[in-house]
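User: Please run a holo structure prediction.
Assistant: Happy to. Please share the sequence and the ligand.
User: Here you go; the ligand is guanosine-5'-diphosphate.
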Amino acid sequence: MSLAAESAVAPDAVLDALEAEAIHVFREAAGAFRRPVMLYSIGKDSSVLLHLAVKAFAPGKVPFPVLHIDTTWKFREMIDFRDRTARELDLDLKVHTNKEGVDEGVTPFTHGTHEYTRIMKTVALRQALDEGGYDAAFGGARRDEERSRAKERIFSLREPGHRWEPRKQRPEFWRTANTQLADGQTMRVFPMSNWTELDVWRYIQREKIDVVPLYFAEQRPVVERDGQLIMVDDDRLPLQDGEQPQLRSVRFRTLGCYPLTAAVESTADNLDDLLAEMLVDRRSERAGRLIDGEGGGSMESKKTEGYF
Amino acid sequence: MTTTEPQSTSIETEALVEHPIVRVVACGSVDDGKSTLIGRLLAETESVPDDILDYARNTRRSGTTIPKGEVDFSMLTDGLEAEHEQGITIDVAYRHLYLPSGRRAIIADAPGHEQYTRNMAVAASTADIAILLVDATRGIRPQTHRHLTVCAMMGVRSVIVAINKMDAVGFQHVTFEELAGGVRAAAARFDLEEIDVIPVSALTGDNVIARSAQTGWYHGPTVLEALTSWRPHGAENLEAAPFRLPVQYVVRADDFRGYAGTVVAGSVRPGDKVVVNARGPETTVERVLVAGEDVDVARAGQAVTLTLETETDVTRGDLLVAPGEGFPADHYPRPATAFAADLVWTGEEELRHGRSYLLLAGSLAVPAVVTAIRGRRDVVTGEEMAARTFKMNDIGHVEIATDTPVPLDPYSVSRDTGGFLLVERVSRDTVAAGLIRHALRRAHNVVPHAFTVDQEARARLKGQRPRVLWLTGLPGAGKSTIADALERKLHGLGMHTYVLDGDGVRTGLNKDLGFTPEDRAENVRRVAETAKLMMDAGLIVIVSLVSPFRGDRRAAKGLFREGDFFEVWVDTPADVVVERDPKGLYAKARAGTLPNMTGVGQMYEPPEHADLVVSGAGDLDEVVGQLLEALEVS
Ligand SMILES: Nc1nc2c(ncn2[C@@H]2O[C@H](COP(=O)(O)OP(=O)(O)O)[C@@H](O)[C@H]2O)c(=O)[nH]1
């Protein structure tokens, strides 16, 4: 039969199915684990994740705390947004910073991006999970983000020390998760595994979910480095010779630490325009993340160390 | 797909809307061209970002003949670093395909190697459709049968067979017909609803997305068309089935108590009657909420929260179902404690007959034992052969018993309530996926009658607290000597006792068992069950058994209530034991005539959390004193 005969799967139907799956995963983990926590990175995926968590347990409250790893290099708007969201949704928000890292003066400029990320994100996350005694952590990672993620489980097991051991990952049959943990093991749980970036934005639009304004185009002070646009969010960014911040209309596809997250030139200052731009510019979103490097492999090495 | 024409557009549209996401398992042997086919599907539906396409244009792996600058589609689906190096896929990967209809396909890419049957089973467990590759230059091979067997067993009812590399055989019609006939014959022994056989070249793109000019003799759909037009069949139409909701979570708020879970079959409306775990009284659904909002009806696949009109005791792991009237008994999950099931063994460790595992079904977890191994399936021929154990990637037929009655469906009725996992209790690894064939309704499947004279009554008459003391340790550690001394002491105090001794049971009850790990597991299981009966009779039972494996001892302990079972490690240094060698066993073992001797040929796994550790080389009276204290007898 011809392709023309069916034109009729509304994007809404796909979103409904993805939403149902995510809610299922949330409930399963909340029921099975002793002390789950949700990792909240303030980005669009986290905003959707939070929205799904609220739906999963409505009319009850979200039955776990929300954890933000603050590297101290986040965009200022992100921190404002985080605190406002926590107030509005009455969340049990925990914020953790690797204090030793701060004391030792670890920054993206002094220690290099890889070492900085390891200390201020990976180690910080491990510290926070250990201190909180959490046996499970929800994250907003999606399989479409990066090729090595295509094999990530929805319930991803971590060995003692938060090590990700490819060989120990459990086969995922049906909707039945093996949530049993041996001593020292913990679980990372990804309810949005099967979402794509486009789904995330469509869902944000449909559900009218609030996101950090940095995702929308606006005149912002940026410098251009190696072809990437870096926003000068505060005066901690060391300017190189001849660099002069200029105002340009830019937005961000992903949000992380401002010195490590490149902006894209854009005039999309609303969701419709943004979705339209996405359909044209078909580069993967991580192309704007300076820490990932080339190819699909480097993310995997970080994951083995315990990076989310 | 092709065999039926759509009756009307509205039915077609409805089916698609019901199934906005279709799940696909892709199977093929190494080098059949699976990565190339999936890569092409992804690229040509614009389901991969441009920078990844660039990568596939500019990166080459060794051995490839595709010139730089052209897209090597097989590069689009590569994942883990380790696999890059080996050049093979070793795990299941999931990719998203935007189908032209707006439907989404999630392709589970399962590796082709024989040893990864378990990964294929995982990928097939959620699949609506299988894409099965056959390399036209190599023909139908044992792998083709293996893939069909696993897909059919896991409940896949629609198969798209891509006869690939047609370019390499000159797009010859006869070659295609021969292979297509072979595949259809092989598929005939399975319960498939639809099979499309398509001549394809993944490399050149023929019949992948668009109709090929090279195959004028072919009139069926392309691979993409077959995916796009798929719709659920009778067996997959879960909406018509009786309502089932496995409860995952109890949502509590002010004046609110709701049971949250995903509807796995049927539909539910306010006012519907439901039964908890398919037994007991009916109750009525008051409200149906989806994502916090009241709705009139919720259907299979939706995540819901229900409130009930009457106060009912429902917890996580329970199953809410429509009342059983009007449904055939075999299609209704009446609780049972024994089942016939198929297993796909996924564990590194072999199946231990008689060992207690955790059975997970949905949100339910209960201890379960494989009570009989009926046979192992040869996945190529489909024949069932005798087997004593299963290794990783084996598929077989077993009987399984659970500690408490559980409401499970036949797998053919519902994947979600008919599939289960077996979990090893120490490592917590998933050692098997199970598929219920049917509940066993035999004498031992009856829920035990509650007799009026019970353990407590018997114990009261004897004036003692029945217990089990389980002495474990190396052969010659002194277990029997200690058991004997303790029993004499207890007997003298007027206690009713019995010693179950390893050598004793092996001359009678367990004389059919040897010393392999499987037989030792069964030995321990029988002794534990016997001890349990004796304890129930009111006795203080002293077990004296090497019981070298932690898992077996843990299973034994699992039969008892907290505080009724003491694991006592008789810890005697190895050199003392070898020196003693009361039965000359160590001498034989070292001479090689006793291969499974504990401490020599087999490991002894000392307890990690023994309730008591005593020395088998110290003062006997002191040890007896310690044990009396543990038993709270003075
Ligand atoms: N001639 C021809 N070669 C193909 C075709 N599809 C794949 N190949 C080649 O077969 C080899 C294995 O392909 P790949 O997709 O990596 O196979 P996989 O191991 O099944 O994923 C590669 O050299 C491909 O270029 C085809 O349709 N025709």
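Residues 121 and 182 of chain A are 26 Å apart (CA to CA).
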